[in-house]
Amino acid sequence: QVQLQESGPGHVKPSETLSLTCVVSGGFFTNAYWWSWVRQPPGKGLEWIGEIFHSGSTNYNPSLESRLTISVDKSNNQFSLNLTSMTAADTAVYYCARLCSGTSCPHYGLDVWGQGTTVIVAS
Amino acid sequence: QSALTQPASVSGSPGQSITISCTGTNTDIGAFSYVSWYHQYPGQAPKLLIYGVTKRPSGVPDRFSGSKSGNLASLTISGLQSEDEATYFCKSYTTRNTWAFGGGTKLTVL
Questions:
Q1: Residue A56 carries which DSSP code?
Q2: Residue among A112, A82, A72 nearest A96 (CA)
Q3: Which of B38, B46, B96 sits opposite A62 (nearest CB)?
Q4: Which of A37, A93, A97, B50 could form a disulfide with A49 if both were Cys (CB 3.0 to 4.6 A apart)?
Q5: Distance between CA A49 and CA A96 in Å, rounded?
Q6: pLDDT surpassing 70 at residue B1
Q7: Which residues of A touch B57 (CB under 8 A)?
Q8: A61 at interface of B, judged by CB pairs closer than 8 A
Q9: Average pLDDT, chain B
Q10: DSSP, res B8
Q11: Tens digit of each residue's pLDDT (9 = 90 or more) over A16-51
């Protein structure tokens, strides 16, 4: 049973960089998945942040692209998010999730999610 | 503002059927059959209900069904149960190689 677990600071100051890591356990980094980040501001809906493939290819939300880097560390079964120049508008629960791109899993569905980590941006 | 439009709320009584709409454009829902649906209970992570417009992952009851016509995707829940009370989100691939979520629909079971 694959599990995802986010880790990172619960609080960052405005203009600082947010760094989050998602550890994948119970499974392997294969080329059947895109590893994704999704966030949810308090009381609001879901926002897709971006994704990274096993090969390192990435797709980013255009509204965040200039501040965003997603990377993968296959040797440690984890992937990470860096978001620079944080503002209060970036306050949210950040989720990592697995997007299936193969045929033996729910194709293009986010089928495994982490529990989410709350990030508050305040001075 | 979300790229996909959902009603803010819907309601129904136990045993009834309800449908949640998700309206996009010809650059997302209308262009691909990669629509998925999720539900989310307060304080929990979302859970996948429907993928590929109509398919259910293992373990999701067949009371949940999805469909698409043009730029409009829909999730229907039949035989409504109290545990279906949650917030529902649609998601679609887009022509910009990105994913877009709907704003979410809060389902109330009366």
A1: S
A2: A112
A3: B96
A4: A37
A5: 10
A6: no
A7: 106, 109, 111
A8: yes
A9: 96
A10: S
A11: 999 999 999 987 767 789 999 999 999 999 999 999
